[in-house]
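WARN retry 2 of 3 for item q-0093 after timeout on previous attempt; input resubmitted unchanged.
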Amino acid sequence: MTQNDDSPRGLAFAITAYVLWGGLPLYLKALSHVPAIEVVAHRILWSVPVAALILAVLGRTNDIRIALRSPKMLAMGMLTAVLISINWLTYVYAIATDRTLDGALGYYINPLFSVFLGYVFLGERMRPLQWVAVGFAVCAVLVLTYELGSLPWISLVLTISWGFYAMFKRSLPIGPNQGFLLEVLVLSPIAIAYLAFLAINGTQSFTSVSWTTTFLLMGSGIITAVPLIIYANGAKLLRLSTIAMLQYIAPTFIFLTAVFIFDEPMGWERKVAFPLIWMGLVIYSISLFRKSK
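OK item q-0093 returned
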């Protein structure tokens, strides 16, 4: 059922989640000495007990048992699990290699890409202003491609993986919290096998670099699961148009962190591309407000 009014509680939940996501680069930067794939494996592994504990407290673990017995739900969970793992791996790699701005750009483009996905796959009608907004995003990508000599692949992988993840996630007939636990459960055997391989070969970072690294890797489950679950509980108490506006918080924090804390360079192509995206988002926001009225 669509939420027709905004709840202050829902607003607080959603803003908290987006601020936590916006601050995530600071946490991941502290793990930049650890290979990205190892960081993601730990994010998956340590998310399982966190998500399971929360669902146990909420008394919703029965949904997981049903999902694990349903081939259709399990297959859809595997698909969304693959997409979210690609997204995580790309994002961790971007921050570790001083390309956080590319990550911010990817998440800025995402709302416009999601509108386009809805038009292509779900038969949703795009308003003229939305076409203009998508056009601005395409221009931004073209500017970056021209200057870099290749597609801005980090931004595009983040946009595409998250866009399809969100779209397919809607097809899971269980709640978002249960869906998240299903995804990390599906990925856990792969994560455990990879971490065991590193341990056998003596190349793991866990317990072998420093206690700080060990605790940060263990905490990656909390910083992964908690914002998702907070967001899931807030989203159902807000209008879709409000959620669409709030989703700019995270990439804005990421952008500011990249420029003012990580001191990443803003070449002329980024000085052109980001305003183009921002203009597209302003136009997109205007179309949402008109639709909500």
